[in-house]
Amino acid sequence: MYRYDEFDASFVASRVAQFSDQVRRRLTGELSEDQFRPLRLMNGLYLQLHAYMLRIAVPYGTLNARQMRKLAHIARTYDRGYGHFTTRQNIQFNWPKLKDIPAILGELATVEMHAIQTSGNCIRNITTDQFAGAAADEIIDPRPVAEILRQWSSLHPEFSYLPRKFKIAMTGSPNDRAAVKFHDIGLMAATDPQGEIGWAVYVGGGMGRTPMVGKLINGFVPHEHLLAYLESILRVYNRFGRRDNKFKARIKILVHEEGIESIREQVEAEFAAIKGGVLTLPQEELDRISAYFAPPAFERLNATRIDVEREKILEPAYGRWLENNIASHRQPGYACVTISLKPVGGAPGDATAAQMEAVANLAETYSFDELRVTHEQNLVLPHVKIGDLRAVYDALFEHGLAAGNAGEITDIIACPGLDFCALANARSIPIAQAISTRFAAPERQREIGELKIKISGCINACGHHHVGHIGILGVEKKGTELYQITVGGDATEDAAIGNILGRGFVAEEVPDAIERLVDTYLDRRQGADEPFIAAYRRLGDAPFKEALYGTA
Amino acid sequence: MEILTGNELLSGAAVYLDRDGRWVEDLQAARVFLPEEAEAQDAAMAATRATMRIVSLETEVVTLQEGRIVPARLRERIRAEGPTAPVFDRQHLDEDGHVSI
Question: In degrees to the nearest 10, what's the CA dihedral of B36, B41, B42, B48?
Fold first, then answer.
């Protein structure tokens, strides 16, 4: 894992001191709220419906045990004993008090964490595949380049006041688990004809009120020129992105209005001017950063087959967990473990302080002190020996973390919604709870197979509803919460935006509506090996529309 | 009919202006301004701004139902009570969180 150098430590420490003084001046009345608001947002501090909310960056979703314990300590000492993991691989605390924020930031700095650039019109936390550095299907570990991008984008003076926020996601695997095509810039590992590894660059993806699939702007950028290429994109965006209308200010609108060819031309012109200059990434520097992410000291083990079918007979809950929550590791004898934060009836992404500490202990004991946060609001132990899986499961079970539902219909993404968020129009969490309760039976979930439900409480789409196989968008109509249902979204490399099929439903009707969609899929699929999204692509909207609204 | 609401600076707690010019947690204690009291309402807002202690100051439309103040928007009803899922108690003012105009 990356460790702060003197520069990192010093800029985080000076920011803590600076913001502490700004808080002090706000409390004494030297600063007005109008003056203070942009300063607090630069430090991840929002004011929500009930209280302040502090959003803390988890760089590319990677944490160690000490950091997770610090988050648990903050939850217990300054908040209400829990935290909420988000689709941007960050964590949010919903109840901190303004006067405690300097102390919280000071505590975070001791474990090399901060809340800088988790808000505001700047480059936000760079997200990546939760199995980075572990996945069997990976071409390259994206974390060294993600760390270099973090360093490049942190307090970048030219890009601190962009037209709007800017999100970068990257994956080192052809199987995209980081939704890269729905980010302002998406990076996907690619190889050139000589077999060199570099990056395919997508630009102009996003969700929100105008969902767009990112467009390929360059099929191969080598590591050494990646910073210059991204700087070129940011410069074009900074110069021409719209500042007259907040709703049209993201780069996706610029790309859409100008056309990808025109944007590519402008980026290439900028790139030609700065390529080979100060932003060239020397191989030695890439090697130096990569050394922080060297594979841990794996034991040399034989490939071990897990007899899931046998375990399912012996102990169905454990067998189910093995079937769903274990992903292939590149090292024989090891596996990646997804810790579901989606217990039936729970709030997606929430973890208590005790759970965070339990997970930290497991990371230390069984996963080389490494943890990940997923964009699907779960946690990951990336390097677990297959022989240790049972012990890990038992410890997770003890702490209410053993739900074996990863990737199933109850593994729902949901934003905080109107229960917490000042921007929301409708609640999200109760809808997620009602759906997960409706589909709680493990046999039913297994029969349905992979089905991703994503719920947002407003059009800003923090809950990724546009890319849910089934998406749910809460809106407010005449004082009532209504939920629009979309079908056919996909966040992976086969990126697609879901279609709205018709009128919205009141909250109580939503579980029935989802059940009708599911039943239609089960009736019409060609077999258990045809997942929901594949069946939808074959069948189109019609049968699902009929399921929701009848034939009239 | 409208009430005045905002969030207290230190705790972030949702608060309401009461009839005595204090910013309090209890929605039911809120002063209800009738349309003809626009001048008093504006004055209360100006005095509140001058304290610099109430953030996100807003007016909210309410009705009176069986003697109780009911905000028109669901958002405000949730804001007054606390999150519905998971259910949490609303944020409370600390000792140093009392603000008057």
Answer: 180
The alpha carbon of residue B40 is apart from the nearest alpha carbon of chain A, in Å, by 23
**Of B52, B55, B74, Cβ closest to residue A418:** B74
Q: Where are the alpha helices (DSSP H) in A417-507?
A: 429-438, 442-448
Interface test with A, best of B45, B77, B90, B91 (most A CBs within 10 A): B91
Asked if omega into B86 is within 30° of 0 (cis), the reply is: yes
Reading the block at residue A340, the tokens are 């579901």
Q: What count of other Cβ atoms lies within 10 Å of the Cβ of residue A309?
A: 11
Q: Give the pLDDT confidence of A99-139 residue by residue, as tens digits.
A: 999 999 999 999 999 999 999 999 999 999 999 999 999 99
* Six token digits for residue B48: 């509140």
pTM of the full predicted structure? 0.97
Please count the residues of chain B: 101
Could you tell me where the beta strands, DSSP code E, fall in A425-508? 453-456, 470-477, 480-487, 499-500, 505-506
ipTM of the complex: 0.97
By CB neighbour count within 10 A (0-12 exposed, 13-18 middle, 19+ buried), where does A315 fall?
A: middle
CA dist., res. A237 & res. A185, Å (int): 11
pLDDT digits (tens, 9 = 90+) for A43-101: 999 999 999 999 999 999 999 999 999 999 999 999 999 999 999 999 999 999 999 99
- The region, left, alpha or beta by phi > 0 then psi within -120 to 50, assigned to residue A155 is left
Chain B's closest residue to A422, CA to CA, is B75
Cβ atoms of A120 and A167 closer than 8 Å: no
